[in-house]
Amino acid sequence: MKRDEYTEMICKGFCTFYKEGREGLTCGAYDFLGRNLTASEVRSNVQQVKPRADFSRDKELRKLACEQCDFLVDGCDFREGLGAQPCGGYVIVEWLLKRIV
Fold first, then answer.
1. Cα(14)–Cα(86) distance, rounded to whole angstroms?
2. Where are the domains of the chain?
3. Is the model more confident about 51 or about 95?
4. Confidence of residue 17 (pLDDT cuts 50, 70, 90)
5. Could you tell me which residues come within 8 angstroms of residue 13 by beta carbon, excluding any fewer than 6 positions away?
6. Are 52 and 43 in contact (CB under 8 A)?
7. Could you tell me the pTM of the whole model?
8. Nearest-angstrom CA–CA distance, 36 and 18
9. What is the pLDDT of residue 2?
10. Which burial class, exposed, middle or buried, applies to 61 when counting CB atoms under 10 A from its CB (0-12, 13-18, 19+)?
11. Residue 96 and residue 45 in contact, taking contact as beta carbons nearer than 8 Å
């Protein structure tokens, strides 16, 4: 279930797939961020995040977030190689991973 603070920062701020009225749907990266960071921690980091992924941590991201994502099962255009950008949560988690290792 989406939480307003996280949705504002992650989905509205970074996700090209975001649509109003679908607050019950979350991606694996959104869930990962919600489990591991407070809203304050997300807020303090997203201001520095670039809006595009560079895919340098894709293998780790797949394991941490994408493998648990409901959209992977139902059709993730990014993972299916359809030329789509990853979700906004992916961009944020990638940026955070590059900062810790």
1. 10
2. 4-100
3. 95
4. confident
5. 46, 88
6. no
7. 0.86
8. 22
9. 67
10. buried
11. yes
